[in-house]
Amino acid sequence: MILLNPGPVNVSPRVTEAMLRGDLCHREPEFSDLLDAVRTKLVRAFAPDGDWAAVPLTGSGTLALEAAVSSAVSTGRKMLVVENGVYGARIREMAETHGVDVVVLEWAWTERADPARIAAALGADPAIEVVAVVHHETTTGLRNPIEGIGRVVRDAGRLLLVDSISGLAGDPIDVEGWGVDICVGVANKCIQGVPGVGFVLARRSEMARMAEIPQRSVYLHLPRHFAAHEKRTVPFTAAVQVLYALDEALDELLEETVAGRVERYARAARQLRAGFARLGLEILLPDEWRSNSITTIGLPEGATYESLHDHLKADGFVIYEGQGQLGATAFRVANMGALSVDDFDRFLESLGRALA
Ligand SMILES: Cc1ncc(COP(=O)(O)O)c(C=O)c1O
After folding, report:
1. pLDDT tens for residues 249-275?
2. Number of domains in the chain
3. Which atom of ligand 1 sits closest to the CA of residue 134?
4. Whose CB among 49, 162, 211, 249 lies 3.0–4.6 Å from 223's, allowing a Cys bridge?
């Protein structure tokens, strides 16, 4: 089955086989070596410059994101949340659930966030300590302007938290150069590992700052995990086999290089989008805002998502429905994972037959 949903993705046989390295107790030195290796490779891949640390966490991307959101804001300060899709809205929900005061700036789902509006909001409210934004809004496939947002956040002396769960390794992001302070990712999307581990990348100065904030959660308190990781251990049982797979997936990524992976995804997206145009399909977003890994397409007259999905699945392809308000009018095709030009060609042929 070829997965054209935005994670979990098809992984290489090498990554699948890594899960069979053998049973391992997370209190043994072999696990400490695995944890160190994964942490080191995450920093080498995504934050090679500056003084960064990686904190892998057992759970899906939401868990890692909630750990970052609930750990990042000092008592009495606020989080500004950029909302132009489902995942921005989820950050707001997380902050509110943990009793963090939130200022929300909303845009339509088809609009990019505007750094000037964020700068104005920061100027008006000195209590805002952290700005949180989604890099790649998986809702629509829209890429937010992280570099420009990073500039205004840094100029205002505030901190930037980025959900790059569907961005890292698929779209460009320079956490050090663009002024990101905390960045959240997951194993099972563009990194091409399996589901079960997310991670937080943060400047070490940020890890020290967060350690001073009273904890809002037991499991999700990021400094607790970081402190244990620095001692080569974990506070709670880790998903050992998922970490084996992530370790192997990171080796693959570093061999391909992050820039090489981003370029491969960009090429795949171009191939798919040219095919969609040949089939007369309409893409939701303007070209320059689209990510390298998701395309949201209007459902053609008379077609239903269910019929399209079922036709394609019978040919071995899984597509993804439109999210929320787009459910009735659009569907999504992702190009994440260990897939080839030939896989995408065969998919476009199958899509042509399904539409006919
Ligand atoms: C941008 C973004 N944030 C958060 C999540 C949540 O991740 P998970 O489903 O792994 O919990 C997703 C999942 O698609 C996502 O795309």
Report:
1. 999 999 999 999 999 999 999 999 999
2. 2
3. 1
4. 211
What is the atom index within ligand 1 of the atom nearest the CA of 166? 16
Which tokens hold the place of 270? 């171009």
**298 found inside a domain:** yes
Is the C-alpha dihedral spanning 203, 50, 39, 86 positive or negative? positive
The number of angstroms, rounded, from the C-alpha of 153 to the middle of its chain's C-alpha atoms is: 21
Cα of 62 vs centre of ligand 1, distance in Å, is 6
Query: Separation of 30 CA from ligand 1 center, angstroms?
Result: 30
Residues 280 and 244 occupy one common structural domain: no
Verdict on whether the full-model pTM lies above 0.85: yes
163 and 288 co-located in one domain: no
In a domain, 8, yes or no: no
Which of 166, 182, 183, 336 is the pocket-test mutation for ligand 1 (most atoms within 8 Å of CB)?
166
With b meaning 16 or more CB within 10 Å and e meaning fewer, what string describes 320-330? Answer: bbbbeebeeeb
Pocket residues for ligand 1 (CB within 6 Å)? 6-7, 60-62, 65, 87, 134, 138, 163, 165-166, 186
187: domain CATH number is: 3.40.640.10
Confidence at 325, pLDDT banded by 50, 70, 90? confident
**Boundary of a domain, candidates 211, 226, 255:** 255
